[in-house]
Structure formats: structure tokens, C-alpha cells
Amino acid sequence: MRLVTVTGEASGDLIASEALRKLCTKMPQLALGGIGGDRLAALGMECWFRSDDLAVRGYAEAVSKLVHILAVRHWLLKYATKWAPQVYLGVDAPDFNLGVEARIRQQGIRTVHLISPSIWAWRPERIIKIKQAVDHMLCIFPFETRVYAGTGVQASYVGHPIADMIPLEPDAQTARQALSISGRRAVVAVLPGSRAGELKHNGPEFFRAAAALARDCEVVIPAASASIAQQIQRHPEFRRAEQQGVRLLLQQGLDPVSHQALAASDVALVASGTATLEAALFKRPMVIAYRVPTLT
């Protein structure tokens, strides 16, 4: 059996890899291809493009990368059809995935979408496109299946894959030892986001806050990949924060370094997104902040 999986950012790669791990164990002959990151590649997926190629936020960034995204979409539609999968699994990234799913579905390929667009919160008219594109919607929140009742879209609640990765009682002491954090000062985890645009717009404020907090606290900033670490290190504000003692935590292996940082922390400064749910599951109080381009 062949399955195409497409994710649009680091959190999607994490969620997809956790969702597919058990499936790969039960179906060792399953062939995976698509767009993903390090974790999906570790499962044996043939990555045709990196998730970073699709990682945009808001209209301004989408316009700036439009030519590249359209080129990826054109290639994906052509090659995925030739690859002849039985199922296309789109993970989040609805503005990209739903359009591809609609075209793929016309070729007789079954389409499944993991993480429902937030039609219960905004842009409810997207249900029209979802009906055209999706055979089965996999919902990560229990109330979402009720949203699809009577729409003609088959929907199932599957839970949030990340919830299984986080212990009910996080061990802060063990996490601090693993990160070589000692002393009695409070620990603050700073998570400015994983997309290039998030680091560009959120980064300066987050790093200035980190520098100010470092006078009285231990401050750590996790980087989910080498490329994200390089983007962070290029920020002048981060370099100034580093001089104040702020530490950049590099990803080692496949265990999310953000989870180590949150487990070790007393409080977190978090960009709006998947990391807010992770902080909540780690039972850490948080301040949520986000800066968007003016056009967006």
C-alpha cells in the first residue's frame, strides 16, 4: 500500500509522525512519500520536499512565496498521481492541502485530512471546499465531529497525537538535569515559533524579553532543527540575549527539544500555535504572544 503524506511545518511533521508510527508497525510494507521533515523521514518516508517549503503565515508571506508554492503544488499533483497511492493524507496546512486533495480525489484516490480547519471559529464557508476535497476528516478535538454532523463529510475524533507524548506528571527535575540546569532560579522557556516568518516577526520581541528575563531567571530557547537554530542565531537580538546568559537548545535525536524545555520550565513565553497546547499539557503557565505583518 502507498500513502502520500503532506505537512506544512515542523509541528505537522511531529503530529504526522506520531500518527503514522503505529500504522507503520502494523503495516511494515506501507510505502510513504510526500512532504515532511526529519521525523517523517525517520519513519522511512520518501520526502519529495521539506515541510519548510510550505511554511508561511498570513497573506503577506503567502504572496511572497506564491511562485514557489505553486511550483511545489504543480509538481506534487503530477508526481503523486504517477506514484499511484491508495490514500492521500493531508496534515493541517488547509490552504495548501485542501486544493491538492480536491484534485487528487478526482483521480479516484481516497483523501483523508488530519486536523480539521477551525471552521467553528472562523471562515465557516470553508466547509464547501472540505466537502469537495475530503473523504474522511480526522478531528483532534472531541467537539469537532459535531461541527460536521449533517454536512456529508465523514468525521472521526482521533485525539491529539502529541497528547500521548507528554506524561501526565511531567518531571521538571529530571528535565533540568538533562539540560544541565542547576540552582534555584526560575526557569523560563521561550518558544518564538518554528516558521521563518514567525522567527522574523516574533523573534526580536521574544529575544529582547528573554534578555531581560535572564537577569533573574534561567532562560532557554529550544530549536526544533538545525535550520531553525541557524535562523535564530542570525538575529542580533538573540546574540545580545545570549550574552546575557540565554541558552539555545539544539535538537538531539527525535525527542522534541521543546518538550524538554517546557518540562524543565516554571513558566513559558510562547508564540500562538501547537506550542500553546504543549505548554498546557505540561501544566506550565504561559504568556502567549504573536506579531503579524501589517497586511495580514
Question: What can you see in these coordinates?
Answer:
The chain has 296 residues and is α/β, with parallel strands linked by helices. The protein folds into 2 domains: 2-164, Rossmann fold (3-Layer(aba) Sandwich); 172-289, Glycogen Phosphorylase B (Rossmann fold, 3-Layer(aba) Sandwich). The protein is built from 13 helices and 12 strands. Strands 3-2-1-4-5-6-7 form a 7-stranded parallel sheet, with helices on both faces. Strands 10-9-8-11-12 form a 5-stranded parallel sheet, sandwiched between helices. The model has no long low-confidence stretch (mean pLDDT 91).
Rounded to an integer, what's the Rg over CA atoms?
20 Å
**Major sheet summary line:** 7 strands, parallel
The CATH architecture term of the largest domain is 3-Layer(aba) Sandwich
Task: Give the helix proportion (percent range).
Answer: 40-55%
Let me know the number of strands: 12
N-to-C span = 41 Å
Order of strands, main sheet, comes to: 3-2-1-4-5-6-7
CATH homologous superfamily of the largest domain? Glycogen Phosphorylase B
Order of helical and strand elements = EHEHEHHEHEHEHEHEHEHHEHEHE
In terms of quaternary structure, the protein is single chain
CATH C-level name of the largest domain:
Alpha Beta
